[in-house]
Design goal:
five-stranded mixed beta barrel; single chain; Helicase, Ruva Protein, domain 3; 3 domains; alpha+beta; about 200 residues; DNA polymerase, domain 1; OB fold (Dihydrolipoamide Acetyltransferase, E2P); RuvA_C_sf
């Protein structure tokens, strides 16, 4: 079990980050929110979860321990594998998932690509008594670098494409949430904008 990985960020893709550890590049599959906190050439420490399959070993990286624990708990529900668990965390924060499950909010869960009404009901039934209540703690940032005003567009667009939406659909969703980015007093919150964009696409 690899509990965390710490090293220099060597590369970033739409769905993963490569961290250099002891001369070895380890690829970690991450949510767009986690990827948005990383910068190539800077050091980072990411909690990790290893998924072992007969033909592969896959490492998933997370922005904090809370995201990791929810990722692992989600997979205890019938029909939820690592890819779907990661998609759930790409659309909703850990606390948003806790609220949706404990309040039996099927509609919120079905905004995740790959989850239908029956799947959402099953997840609620199996996790309601185990997922816990919202912590009220904002997700941690791996580094404190603010997001440039225009940089969020590329990060949200890349996150949407990485989740399976077309470039054209991603363009429309980014334009739809642009007013929200302009309304903020500080640097744009990429994670919040990504989730808003996903909600826009789910309604289309």
């Amino acid at each position: 079990m690899i509990a965390f990985v710490s090293g220099e960020v060597a590369a970033l893709t739409l769905t993963s980050a490569v961290l250099q550890v002891g001369g070895v590049g380890l690829e970690l599959h991450c949510t767009p929110h986690t990827l948005a906190t990383l910068r190539v050439g800077e050091k980072a420490t990411l909690p990790t979860s290893m998924v072992v399959r007969e033909e592969s070993l896959t490492l998933f990286g997370f922005v904090d321990d809370d995201e990791k624990s929810v990722f692992e708990l989600l997979q205890t529900a019938s029909g939820v594998g690592p890819k779907l668990a990661q998609a759930m965390l790409a659309v909703h924060s850990p606390d948003e998932l806790r609220r949706a499950v404990t309040s039996e909010d099927v509609k919120t869960l079905t905004t995740v690509p790959g989850i239908g009404q029956k799947g959402a009901q099953r997840i609620i039934l199996e996790l309601k008594d185990r997922i816990g209540v919202p912590t009220g703690v904002a997700p941690q940032r791996v580094n404190g670098a603010p997001v440039a005003d225009d940089a969020w567009r590329g990060q949200v667009h890349a996150g949407l494409v990485g989740l399976g939406w077309s470039a054209k659909e991603a363009d429309k969703a980014v334009d739809a949430v642009a007013p929200q980015a302009a309304d903020g007093s500080g640097a744009p919150d990429v994670a919040a904008l990504l989730r808003a964009a996903l909600r826009t696409l789910s309604k289309a």
